Amino acid sequence: MLKSVLLHLSGSFGCDRVIELGARIAQCNGARLRGLSVLDTSSLQSAGQSVSAAHAISDFGRLAHAERGQAYSHEQLSEIAEKLEVPFDSIGIAGNAIESLVREAQFHDLLVTAAPAQDNRSPVDMPAWQLIDLVVKGRQPTYISRGMNTQPRRVLLPYDGTEAAARAIRSFLIHDPLQDSQCRLLGVGLAAHERSKSLQAMREYCEARRPDLEVGCLPGSVRRVLIPYASKWGADVIALGVPRTYGLWTRFLGQLSLDVLNRTHLDLFLVG
Q1: For residues 101 and 118, what is the distance between their CA atoms, to the nearest angstrom?
Q2: How far is it, in rounded angstroms, from Cα 182 to Cα 160?
Q3: pLDDT of residue 43
Q4: Which residues contact 104 (CB under 8 A, 6 or more apart)?
Q5: How far is Cα 9 from Cα 73, in angstroms, rounded to an integer?
Q6: What are phi and psi of 119, to 5 degrees?
Q7: What is the DSSP letter of 109?
């Protein structure tokens, strides 16, 4: 059960729907909601370092655009939280976005942030690999909304026998951010056989918390089969674990969570 939810007010595409989702999660759990905007000044050039006046103007223009979007997000949070009668507060700071979010997230049970789909991204949005870095560094459950669905209902819980996948499933069921959602445990990879001992153990764990749990098996490489299956099943959210050894080389080779962020419009519940 969640007691405190941190909502990243990025000012990105669909921010009003992301805010509504965060507020609904807090409302359903009786949790307090904190909004946090971070004006990322890490790339701002000082006058002595600027390559050109045009570069400096571009930097300040980007910051001004981000600041306007974040101010709108604070207004939206106030309206939505008051409408849903959710206790809340919001703050705005300047600094490195990832460092600031990691620092604040340690005082909350869940971080909700946005990652618009590829065709809706803007310069104010963190790229997908930075979002994964945020998950790994923060070690807190992170719900990544695509800014489209304010009431996700169908949650896919892929289990391939790894500790990362088990950690994500356990965290989702313990925190239960989407109450009354329909969950499906999906054995994939090494756990794809219905007689797999590890899948049976995970099924027992999940059914103790979700008696109406659906269970399925899907042979084949996780990265090859998961996205088509999620689309066919009509998933709204996929819960995934991010290996804590995630690094630069893995980033370029590709991660399952990166694939979902870059190739789909699905929300993600990630645990590092």
Answers
A1: 23
A2: 20
A3: 60
A4: 6, 34, 36
A5: 6
A6: -75, -5
A7: S
Identity (one letter) of the amino acid at 220?
G
- For 267, the 3-state DSSP assignment is strand
Alpha helices in the chain (DSSP H): 15-29, 53-84, 97-105, 128-138, 163-175, 197-209, 222-233, 248-253, 256-263
What is d(CA 241, CA 259) in angstroms, rounded to the nearest whole number?
13
Encoding tokens for residue 16? 């009003």
Q: Which of 34, 29, 38 is nearest to 10 (CA)?
A: 38
Tokens matching residue 185: 């445990």
Region at 256 (left for phi over 0; alpha for psi -120 to 50; beta for the rest): alpha
pLDDT given for residue 42 in this prediction? 67
Whole-prediction pTM value? 0.88
Q: How far apart are CA 59 and CA 42, in angstroms?
A: 11
pLDDT at 3: 96
Tokens of 124: 């104010």
Pair of tokens at residue 142: 């992170």
- Contact by Cβ (8 Å): 164, 191: no
One DSSP character per residue, 6-64 reads: EEE----TTHHHHHHHHHHHHHHHT-EEEEEEEEE-TTPPPTTT-S-HHHHHHHHHHHH
- Point out the residues of the chain with pLDDT beneath 50: 45-48, 249, 252-254
The length of the chain in residues reads 272
